[in-house]
Amino acid sequence: MIIQMKQNATKKQYEKVTGYLKEKQFEIRDVSSAHVMVFGIIGDTSRIDPHDLYAFDGVGEVTRVSTPFKKASRSFKREDTIIKLPGGVEIGSDMFVMMAGPCSVESEEQLLTIAKGVKAAGAHLLRGGAYKPRTSPYSFQGLEEEGLKILRRVGDQTGLSVVTEIPAADLLPVFERYVDVIQVGARNMQNFHLLKALGKSTKPILLKRGLSATIEEWLMAAEYIMAGGNEQVILCERGIRTYEKYTRNTLDISAVLAVRELSHLPVIIDPSHAAGRWQMIEKLSMASLAVGAHGLIVEVHHDPEHAMSDGAQSLKIPKFKSMMTSLGQMADVLGLRMK
Ligand code: PEP
Ligand code: MN
Question: Which fold has domain 83-334?
Fold first, then answer.
């Protein structure tokens, strides 16, 4: 971190801020010129927020030269993190992993129909929300614990690992019991109490990017989980809020490239919540594969017109099957595998 004092800053102001940092066990490297006082601080700067230093009179400009995340950083760990699931599924390797299923678990019959369909098409994981974060309190809220039990039974019956969203930290024991991968929804990306609790979990965490989160904030959320001891984090870009209204969100496809440079963690894309329209899903999925995502999480429903949530963005099972064929052909060309 480099701190440049204001042009008119006094020696006393310089000494106050450097004294404070020395007390915090940082080493100060002075690089002042005749015109301006400048110094670098050496040590674990992830412990301080650069903005806090503006509280000191005379501080002009604070510049971070290293990232505020450590465990999530590519400079901390060079090799890609690979998360292994039963059945030889690897997230973060040369395998392009497909997670598919309905937005919400509606009944055992519904989930089984969809699970059988996506499994036959080659999906690796079954998704389905049991606790639904709905914009309106009057919309369907999910089957809750019963939904988790259905997911487990259907997952076991079809041989698919299951991924579902956790709404709050106190539900962690019940999620640990029924779920293979725990999803943190976009709205909870900065629920630090929840992230800390998940840091103690033994399950991999699928961390969605917040609705308006920067890439750095997203990686800092991953850092919270990792700092607690759980290093199995899968990042998921699901579109961010912009001024554009045509799509539900704006898919930030370049975030995959940024994250793969900044971090060793696997990153997947959710084209369903990004686009909000099923007609766009196949092409966005192909773009995700091309850009280097490690997989997809896609909403699929056997009867989208009557789905209890997100029908407009859900693929019908035959459409999902044909998309899997296109993705398989593309993966072959790119030297990636889907099995
Ligand atoms: C979901 O996966 O159904 C969901 C609600 O996603 P997000 O948190 O990305 O909105
Ligand atoms: Mn949904």
Answer: TIM Barrel (3.20.20)
